[in-house]
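Sanity check

After download, print the first record. It should look like this:
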Amino acid sequence: MQPTTVAAFWAVSILLVLTPGADWAHVIAAGLRGRVVVPAVAGLLSGHLLMIALVAAGVGALLARFPVALQALTVAGALYLLWLGVALLRNPPAPATGDAHAASGWRHWAVRGACVSGLNPKVMLLFLALLPQFISVGAGWAMPAQILALGLVHIASCAVVYLAIGFGAGALLRTRPRAARVVGRISGAAMVIIAVLLLCRTTTI
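Expected structure tokens:
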């Protein structure tokens, strides 16, 4: 693949990663809970990797041809985000310390992160619309290999940005419980808004 193609894709990808959304809300909440940022981010990345693999295998395009299946995925993802958002609004994360709490929550935050990104149909549709624009039919690599390579570039950007957001939220708000609760509620509200928008979209399909 041409370095210029990879650079052009990265420029678009990083702008999308820097746009706040459900992923941001998840890592901010993880940063406030304690030392669960890494498993939370790992979960998010695993969801993105699954979507990229599905697109590379052609499953994403197949789902896009069946509106009912895509609509069901959208509803499932929206309801999950709604549940998470309401939980954050009712019980905003407070700064936590101690390794015991973090260790017990690692699996929970990893699974939650995988669901946040893996159940988001917007991610798959984004890859379906974005990745083909940077694929070269005449390149030495097969198209699935090019999709996976570009997907890994996107995942690397996600890892850097999400880790910075999670650790930054923890460092800035860990000694400010009141501010941490406000930020937690804002993150919950963001998830609820995203979920409602997804549900509204399904009613117009």
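If your output differs, re-run the checksum step. Summary of this record's structure: The chain has nine helices and no strands.
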